[in-house]
Specification:
With 175 residues, the chain is mainly beta. The chain has a single domain, classed as 3-methyladenine DNA Glycosylase, Chain A (Roll), CATH 3.10.300.10. The protein contains 2 helices and 8 strands; from the N terminus they run βββββααβββ. A hairpin with a 3-residue loop joins strand 3 and strand 4. It is globular.
Length: 175
């Protein structure tokens, strides 16, 4: 997914940071204890958007990637804005600089206008105006790899990847 485009209408950004979550085998996954109404999308078909509310104030978006019935998803952690930057600024008026527009999972959802209403959107067909597209940019040859960010259980697993040279990643890490 690194260097692919996440597109919402006129707004788009290049995916520069992601984290993997492995369902019932991953204590940090929302699906660890099995299916619920909240995480049902994770157990659905791959290629759909799993959107959840966190800390009582932020939306976060994941691409479901496991086979139907097997909850696996990739959290989209950061984007480098590509198009619709003025609309992103309007959606994130408190962002102090352009690198703050989508440099975190909640920030990118605000910048693109992704909310709980988008949970279950088909990222392949774009049925709700949200898609992941390949514009030909190759994934990085040597992505940054580290433990995941902002979790306790399973934080040590090397399931966070980012584009090393990107200034848009959410958290710096030793390269």
């Amino acid at each position: 997914m690194l260097n692919k485009l996440l597109v919402r209408g006129e707004r788009s950004g290049r995916i520069v940071e992601v984290e993997a979550y492995r369902g019932t085998q991953d204590p940090a996954s929302h699906a660890f204890k099995g299916p619920t109404r909240r995480n049902a999308t994770m157990f659905g078909p791959p290629g759909h958007l799993y959107v959840y509310f966190t800390y009582g104030m932020h939306w976060c978006a994941n691409a479901v990637c496991g086979a139907e019935g097997i909850a696996m998803a990739v959290l989209i952690r950061a984007l480098a804005p590509v198009a619709g930057i003025d609309a992103m600024r309007d959606a994130r008026p408190h962002a102090r600089k352009e690198t703050d527009l989508a440099s975190g999972p909640a920030k990118l959802c605000q910048a693109l206008g992704i909310s709980g209403d988008d949970d279950g959107a088909d990222l392949v067909t774009g049925d709700r105006g949200i898609m992941i597209l390949d514009d030909g940019m190759e994934p990085p040859c040597k992505p940054g790899i580290s433990g995941r960010v902002g979790i306790r259980a399973g934080a040590e697993l090397p399931w966070r990847w980012w584009v090393r040279e990107s200034v848009w990643v959410s958290k710096p890490a030793a390269h």
